[in-house]
Design goal:
Blueprint: H1 13-32, E1 40-44, E2 47-51, H2 73-95, H3 109-119, H4 135-148, H5 154-167, H6 173-185, H7 189-203, H8 223-233, H9 238-250, H10 255-259, H11 262-274, H12 276-296, H13 309-321, H14 332-344, H15 353-365, H16 374-382, H17 392-399, H18 409-425, H19 429-445, H20 456-478, E3 485-488, E4 493-496, H21 502-519, H22 529-541, H23 543-547, H24 556-569, H25 574-578
Antiparallel strand pairs: 1-2, 3-4
Helix pairs in contact: 1-2, 1-4, 1-5, 2-5, 2-6, 3-5, 6-7, 7-9, 8-11, 9-12, 11-12, 12-13, 12-14, 14-16, 15-16, 18-19, 19-20
Length: 606
């Protein structure tokens, strides 16, 4: 026989039945009520003015002054029943509370067992109309189960049982909210987690009056922040709040709208300063949602376009990761998130801001990564094709832009040396060159932002040093014979070898042949006068067609042929040339023969 602890409350089966009976009655009364809209109409003079309520508004208690301003008969009856259920649950909590109750965030194993028994005390779920059937038999079975449970664990079973009775009936947003307040006030950790779960599920769902999720309403932009602060005021961990919220956001019917709403965005900003690991937990789930959305979108939207679901989720995630003016600490949660980004493949397109952020995070964590985490970072960075603005985020935060107090230039220089040395040691030479080039570009374009870090003369000296570092980094990348690059002295940069393709030269040759055939004149032989006249007429007929295709000829002869008709078009003897009775030219025997096509222009001389 287990002795009863001192200060314990009597938990006889008769007393338990007496506490649960009014709760059942109130829940059945709530289930029989028809759902009504809380929107009412107030009158001003003789005109009615509709008063629309917001989807997440909480109905006030029936005995408060605020309730008279939203008074409606059906709404008043509903509020009375809702708060009556709340009072019954609070009475069970208060009357079963031990005199010396210890707050335990992590319940004991025996408490967990009693909670599981209490949640399954009702058996299969009954309809509200059948709730009173076989009540005597059910009460007998319930009393037998409570007799088996040790006395010191009956309170946990009773609280879980009473909450299960309430949740078996239709959920109401106001009821869930006021029950959560009771649970937080009396340090009921398990009941608070259960009620928070159902409250958040109701918040992300839609209704007939509001087809979009309730949480997306503009009036509820601070809903999650207020709920999280209320949770923390009860000395409950923020990580627990995040663990409950994140799966609900990911499994919402329209998750892309929920992830990008103002309420979630503001919560992410607060978590960035309060609990960064919780923010990374949410970021991991939005990363999975982003991958799912990209697979669902049509192939026409695989590229990033403004307005798509994928781009909205990517922009929201990128904002979360860049709320702080400094880079994240190199800890296990950060490295795990970077590895998830690598597996999802969002890092490959570095022209996107989100991919560039992931690359900057990986470069920042590489120097201090553990031997077990370094290979994953190396694989991610090795898969990168660098672009010019890829390291903008890393450079800005290394220079300490918008940080107070400002970062000294010497400290920024040391940070860049660490990053570049680590990239060089891991044979990531292209990324090293990209880092130095981005730092040089920043000192040239945004030198005004560095005014608080160093003097103008020091910035100019460091810019000259960066020029040398960029040249050295590029030389390490391209000077190898197998790289396919060579230094071009007259251009002053690295160029690829064998740029002109063979097919392009062949295409030019075909164009030259087609152009000469179009003119219909062999420049190596004398041209009869009649052929010249016909040629001019043909060129006039096809003038519009030829002007539409500007051919890139390379020889001087072809240029002359293509320009000949234009010279004839501007000649003052053009009309005389077209007359068959006028002889402006000598006979065919007097026309000189020449390999130079420019002699054709001598025909126009009288």
């Amino acid at each position: 026989m287990v002795p009863r602890p001192s200060g314990s409350v009597e938990f006889s089966t008769t007393r338990i039945s007496r506490l649960l009976r009014p709760l059942r009655t109130k829940c059945i009364a709530l289930a029989t009520m028809h759902p009504t809209s809380s929107a009412t109409a107030s009158t001003y003079g003789s005109k009615s003015r509709p008063v629309e309520s917001h989807p997440l508004d909480i109905l006030p208690p029936p005995d408060t002054l605020r309730s008279y301003h939203v008074e409606h008969r059906s709404a008043a009856s509903l509020r009375a029943v809702l708060y009556a259920v709340r009072d019954c649950f609070r009475e069970i909590v208060v009357k079963t509370r031990p005199a010396e109750a210890l707050k335990r965030t992590v319940p004991r194993l025996a408490d967990l067992c009693s909670i599981i028994v209490g949640e399954n005390m009702e058996g299969e779920e009954d309809l509200p109309n059948d709730a009173e059937e076989d009540s005597d038999l059910e009460l007998t079975e319930m009393e037998n189960i409570y007799e088996i449970i040790p006395v010191q664990y009956r309170r946990s079973a009773l609280l879980a049982h009473s909450l299960d009775i309430i949740l078996r009936f239709p959920h109401h947003l106001t009821l869930l909210s006021i029950l959560l307040d009771v649970s937080l006030q009396h340090d009921l950790y398990h009941e608070s987690c259960v009620l928070l779960h159902w409250l958040l599920r109701a918040a992300v769902s839609a209704s007939e009056q509001h087809p979009t999720p309730r949480l997306c309403h503009p009036a509820h932009s601070t809903y999650l922040i207020d709920l999280c602060r209320k949770w923390r005021e009860a000395n409950l961990p923020t990580s627990a709040f995040s663990r409950i919220l994140t799966p609900i956001l990911a499994e919402a019917p329209r998750s892309e709208l929920v992830w990008t709403c103002k309420a979630v965005a503001r919560l992410g900003r607060e978590l960035h300063t309060q609990d960064f690991e919780s923010l990374l937990n949410m970021a991991s789930h939005i990363l999975r949602s982003l991958a799912d959305v990209r697979t669902e979108e049509s192939p026409l939207h695989k590229c990033r376009t403004s307005g798509t679901k994928a781009s909205s989720l990517a922009d929201q995630l990128n904002k979360w990761l860049n709320y702080s003016s400094s880079l994240p600490p190199s800890q296990d949660s950060t490295l795990e998130f970077i590895d998830q980004c690598r597996l999802s493949g969002i890092h490959r397109n570095t022209s996107e801001p989100l991919a560039a952020t992931v690359v900057c995070w990986a470069t920042h964590c590489l120097p201090t990564a553990t031997p077990s985490a370094a290979p994953s970072l190396h694989r991610l960075l090795k898969d990168i094709s660098p672009t010019v603005p890829m390291y903008n985020l890393l450079v800005e935060k290394s220079f300490g832009v918008n940080q107070m107090p400002p970062v000294k230039l010497e400290d920024s220089r040391a940070i860049f040396q660490v990053y570049a040395g680590c990239l060089r040691a891991n044979n990531l030479l292209l990324l090293e060159a990209s880092l130095w080039a981005c730092a040089l570009r920043f000192t040239e374009i945004s030198s005004d932002l560095l005014g608080a870090c160093a003097l103008r003369s020091e910035i100019n000296l460091y810019r000259e040093e960066l020029i040398v570092l960029v040249d050295d980094a590029e030389r390490r990348c391209f000077q190898a014979p197998e790289s396919g690059w060579e230094w071009e002295e007259w251009m002053g940069c690295w160029v690829q070898r064998d740029l002109p393709p063979a097919k392009k030269a062949k295409h030019r040759h075909e164009l030259q042949q087609s152009s000469s055939g179009r003119h219909g004149c062999d420049v190596a032989k004398p041209c009869p006068l009649a052929d010249i006249k016909n040629e001019v007429m043909a060129d006039e007929d096809h003038h519009d067609y030829a002007s539409a295709f500007e051919l890139s000829f390379t020889s001087l002869i072809s240029n002359a042929l293509s320009s000949r008709t234009k010279l004839h078009a501007h000649s003052g003897h053009r009309t005389v040339l077209l007359s068959p009775h006028t002889k402006m030219y000598p006979s065919d025997d007097t026309i000189p023969s020449s390999d130079d096509a420019l002699n054709l222009f001598a025909y126009t001389e009288g």
